[in-house]
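Hey, resending since the last one bounced:
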Amino acid sequence: GTPLQNNTFDIFAQMNFLNPGLLGSMEFFRNEFATPIDKFGEQDQKEHLKKLLYPFILRRTKEQVLKELPEKIENHVFLDFSEPEREHYKNRLESVKNAMVNPAYSKRYGEVLKSLLELRQLCLWQKQGPTLNSTKVDFLVENLGQLMEEKHKVLVFSQFTTYLDIIQDKIREQGWKFARIDGSQTIKKRTEMVEYFQEGDAQIFLISLKAGGFGLNLTAASYIFLMDPWWNPAVERQAVDRAHRIGQENKLTVYRPIMKNSVEEKVLVLQQAKRELFRDLMAEDDDEYFSGKLTK
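The structure tokens again:
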């Protein structure tokens, strides 16, 4: 599993259930391990907590036990906005920044998160009048054309069902066969979609990141496109693991298209910071461990 989903208090809750008192009270834990304090350097805190947890955690990473799995190659592909996209994104960013200077706005955290969401979506698609611009969709369709000719099977993940709708329309225009899973479907429908992809004619599988992050076996795929970066590296990792698991016989190639000079680059920085914290905290080097709330 992934014992740390949000912050170090996740592990406190689990350890307090398994070994009551081992990590002290919540107040003690908060003072001793959750924040840097004078008597402990931050690195010393992590080392101390790691030693306390070590006897109670048995970890076996996939790299250790599934040595027969084919190679997995991960690529970040940095894309430039088109001129209309760049102008629209820049204007929206400026208006958000100007609004945040307003004291009333800065107290409304919902508005901050809403603005972040909007900027992230502007990296994926922009609708100006009847025109829909999307550098990322153009990149995806161009690559899919080549992969369809070579008879590969492909997973396409996004957090936004609206974006999956846009991609789906483009796929239909090309006449490619596809399956799709999102949160609105029944278990029966999902099972049918998985079979259509694994055993049937569908070469492309469109998947909502949260709906398809676990419980699916999609080893027919040899290419994955993660269309939008998520704050949580483990969620992306779990999505990739739908294909990189027992039964996979092909080399797996993962593409993460990222818009240059956008909020998406900031998401990558945050992901890296989370990985580093838990690389220090857990006994093994592994990307599935991460922490932290978003500061304003």
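The longest strand covers residues 72-79.

Sorry for the duplicate.
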